[in-house]
Amino acid sequence: MSTKELVAAPPAVAAIVTRRRHRGARHHAFRTLGYVVLILLSLISVFPFLWMLMTSLRQSSTVFGSSLIPQHVTFAAYRTAWNQADLPRHFLISLGITAVTVAAVVFLATLAGYSFARLSFPGKRVIYLTLLTTMMLPATAVIVPLFLELKQLTLINTVQGLILVYIGTSLPFAMFLMRAFFETLPSELGDAARVDGAGEFRTFWSVMLPLAGPGVATLVIFQFMFTWNEFLLANTLVQSPNNLPLQPVLFSLAGKYTTNWPVLTAALTISVVPIVLVYVRMQRQFVAGLTMGAVKT
Fold first, then answer.
1. Is 60 part of any domain?
2. Does the pLDDT value for residue 288 go beyond 70?
């Protein structure tokens, strides 16, 4: 409605049109403000990664006191980090530990989550609450018991022992996450499969698990990030330099009195690549998972 039409309109109609215009203007202003805030938060979040990447491409004498973008780009820090820290060996060790841990946690957590969500058995609530209480324990509170236990089992300073610790400490949260997803699925689908003669495991494997794809993708990303970036347990339970995963090796590149920042940031950039690849591969299902059972209690 134009200005002339608004003046000629009845007072009630003019008031309604004016209120709608004001409401639309406020909505546009809040929307613009929201975009500005999101852009600022995105810039703040991406700056550390950008600084790390740019530092890895510059000479060590130009790290501080110069512009963000290096004037002379060099890849010497990547060659030094790759050879000096023996990154290929430790990279493969971390990749193997992460792959086995993620596969085991996803398999066990989906089975447990389905059981707690869909099955009835004695002590179900007690077992579930007991597992949830382990999520309240900080990692520092269980390091000594884990160290002594692995020592008794002669698994201290071994990759196998570290994998078992990662699986055990990750299962409660993973089970809780998958239980929430399975509870969002319609129970009628499982009932229909049982009527058709499918057993409980076949119902889980062929009907329910494919529908929980976003939940599995969410779990894979979370578990991959946790296992790949874990430092405290790895640095405590593995003492042999030949068996160390990647994160303790990266920590050793930071010197006590001086640090070669281009070499350190180059190694950190290499370590970030697998996480980025996993997220890019599963980002659609991950976003879908965040809007489904992942946030349901």
1. no
2. no
Q: Is 283 domain-assigned?
A: yes
How does residue 269 score in pLDDT terms, banded at 50, 70 and 90?
very high
Please tell me the distance from the alpha carbon of residue 21 to that of residue 71, in angstroms, as a whole number.
52
DSSP string, 135-174: GGS-HHHHHHHHHHHHHHTT-TTSHHHHHHHHHHHHHHHH
Cβ atoms < 10 Å from Cβ of 100 = 17
Residue 10 pLDDT? 57
Token representation of residue 149: 């236990």
Same domain, 19 and 112: no
C-beta separation of 230 from 166 below 8 A: yes
Given a cut of 90, whether residue 215 has pLDDT beyond it is no
Tokens representing residue 20 in the block: 């709608």
Is 253 in the same domain as 126? yes
* For the chain, percent of residues with pLDDT exceeding 70: 87
- Spatial CA neighbour of 233 closest among 167, 177, 153, 173: 167
Q: Is residue 9 domain-shared with residue 133, that is, in the same domain?
A: no
In one-letter notation, the amino acid at residue 11 is P
pLDDT on residue 296: 46
Type of residue at 43: L
Which CATH number do you get for residue 151? 1.10.3720.10
Whether residue 39 sits in one domain with residue 84: no
Residue 294 has pLDDT above 50, yes or no: no
Q: pTM of the prediction?
A: 0.80
Find the domain containing 19 and state its range.
3-45
Of 61, 234, 214, the C-alpha closest to 162 is 234
d(CA 137, CA 220): 22
| Tally of structural domains, the chain | 2
